[in-house]
Amino acid sequence: MSIARPYKQVDVFSSSPYTGNGLAVVLDGQGLSDAQMLNFANWTNLAETAFLLPSTHPDADYRVRIFTTTTELPFAGHPTLGAAHAWLETGGVPKNPAALIQECAAGLIEVRRVPGEESTDTEALAFKAPPLVRTGALEEDVLEWALGGLGLKREDVLAHQWLANGPNWAGLLLRDADLVLSLEPDYVALAGLEVGVIGLHTVGERRAGSYDPAQREQRPAGAREELRPVSDADARRSERFGNVVTGAPADYEVRAFCPGEGLQEDPATGSLNAGFGEWLAGAGLAPESYTVRQGTRLGRAAILHVNRDASGVWIAGHSVTCIDGVVNFP
After folding, report:
1. Does 3.10.310.10 match the CATH number of domain 140-205+229-314?
2. In which band, very low, low, confident or very high, does the pLDDT at 115 lie, cut at 50, 70 and 90?
3. Residue 247 has pLDDT above 70, yes or no
4. Could you confirm whether 48 is annotated as catalytic?
5. Choice among 48, 103, 110, 278 that is catalytic
């Protein structure tokens, strides 16, 4: 006999459906075995699937277990915001009005509400990045592995660092956003390595309305940078979140490669951007507040807001529910 459980499919890091990173959320995971959870996550073929459970910690509002198509993660960013969005939308009321507390295998994660400035603006959520459990420069063989798999030269990389906070990201700071967008990874060569890249959008030609589409033909094959003029709503968000380059789609472009998973390139990655925020802002390699665009080469338009303050690094973004119903488990 199958049991119907409430279910949502949420698009994270976007206020427009189907342009961010999809997340499956089973709102009642009680009684499901590890095998059932992993099997369902594999079937959804999404980057991650979240299962909500009663908290086991007195300070937590609920507990979440997060699965990729192949394994369970102690923490991941877009499932954190997507699960919080789904829990609140279903009527969840935080114990502390200032922030909800999500329990996961990595510990307690604080999630704040970020109200919209205008009556038509949707509410955003921001999670506090958990501590990095592995840092430091990449070992020489790991760096060579990443360079070879991404087709990069040593001089293309300005800095590199381990960014492990659940997933074990190898992070590369590249010279600019164009290079990030031009990458054509060799996923066979990268197998076994989770690698994220970030590059700055320069001001010049990125000013709204000044981009020359003919320049695309001069870029490496596959570099689809679909820039658009900044709207009034974008300008408001830029001012609010401290966007540095207001004429560009975002301050930075990010891509995340995870060979072996259902999606070999992740459309929007909270954990990686949390790691980048802790590393780059902490080392003075990036401002303490900036915006990121991710998923461009996949036809997505995810926007993430990164802010470092005295309490830590916060990753903010919008979420929208795309599917609302039930899922049956045997």
Report:
1. yes
2. confident
3. no
4. yes
5. 48
